[in-house]
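Sample entry (270 residues):
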Amino acid sequence: MSASARQPAIFLSHGGGPCFWMSFPPPFGAHAFDGLRHYLAGLLASLPAPPTAILMVSGHWEEAVPTVGSAAAPGMIYDYYGFPEHTYTLRYPAPGDPALAARVRRLLSDAGIANAEDPARGFDHGVFVPMLIVDPDARIPVVTLSLRRDLDPAAHVAIGAALTPLRDDGVLIIGSGNSFHNLRTFFDGEPEAAATFDAWLTEAATQPDPAAARARLIRWAEAPAARAAHPREEHLIPLMVVAGAAGDDPGRRVFHDVIGGKAISGYAYG
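Predicted structure, serialized as tokens:
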């Protein structure tokens, strides 16, 4: 495969629940997620070539060790609650890729990282909600990878580093989470904490020296407004995997919007 087909590693927001099929009250409003939809819809066109497959790390799957979804035809996991009935009829029939799942396990094992697989795991909403916009025809195989339950940032950077070779095989690595995730404050109309953390996160993630960026991100909990933005960090940790998979590629911010009064950003490496 030519060097031009090397894929990036991308951290993106998957919105809020089945957000693209709903209208929300203020401070969100009917068009709150239009900017994010536009970004996701254009993501494939921004790549150097069509990806051979996508490895997706969702903030909605945690296991004791990183676990790979190895199903050939993953089902659906509606892991959101209290939303309109039609949002539980969404379907995302993308194929899995058991061969890629096996390669992910080999790469992790070769790096000394304990891992497992789950042949029954389906697509949670951190996967199917953005992918229904990214690849609505569901033609690209999707393999999922869990977080490690302890959410240790350095461990997840190491996981990403082990998976870097996949990018040279045309595999797009996506971390699906959110740069701000404090559900208790989403409706409070207060923008300051999110903006403060977003500014720090962008500066850290886009350091010209990727090693320096990783070092900063590992210490994310020391950032201003860190715990106001992430009382629990499961939606941020996919960024650590992405930054780990960056290799020598510096990060850049590829998405930014204010949704419900909260600054939200996405980043790409490569």
